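Deliverable D4.2, example record:
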Amino acid sequence: MRAAKICAECGGTLKMEIVTHTQPWGTQLYRFENVPALVCAQCGHVWLSAEVSQMIDDILQKQPKPKKYERVPVFSLPEPMKA
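Output generated by the structure prediction step:
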């Protein structure tokens, strides 16, 4: 019997899921689809294995042609009012 994986953030149970991961690199933001990750059922924290993290780093360093490009609208909230 395998022991349940426990979230280091909140103590919740982790389960394997396929997620979309966003990774900043320099001044750019990259999106990776179909990423295997452990996700906490309680707090939602996402944990990537060392192997998956290394794959992402390798892709970012080599900069191959991406599968697709998407334009994303960016909004800015007003500055908070000072008391």
